[in-house]
Design a protein that fits this description.
Layout lengths: L1 H9 L35 E6 L5 H8 L19 E5 L1
Antiparallel strand pairs: 1-2
């Protein structure tokens, strides 16, 4: 919890924007969307050859427009895989 609270604060999002004290039955007032996982590299020795899209357009629509937040029935985790392919520069 403390790492999530720190990441939210570092992203400029106040915990006051969420109903955090009312129990799991109360949904947040809005979805939190941010990148918390990164793949760092140096362009001096590597070149980014490709990356994995974290969500398809349909999945993103379901989450951010239709309110089907993660985790859910089709993605049972709140973590989305990060994947990259690099080539030696």
């Amino acid at each position: 919890w403390w790492q999530v609270a720190y990441d939210l604060d570092a992203s400029g999002i106040s915990l006051a924007e969420f109903d955090v004290g009312k129990g799991a039955a109360s949904p947040p007032r809005r979805h939190y969307e941010a990148w918390l996982d990164y793949a760092y590299y140096t362009a001096n020795s590597l070149r980014l050859a490709g990356y994995q899209e974290s969500l398809s357009e349909e999945q993103a629509r379901r989450i951010y427009k239709d309110g089907d937040a993660l985790p859910n029935a089709w993605h049972p985790s709140d973590h989305i895989p990060v994947g990259c392919v690099f080539e030696w520069g």
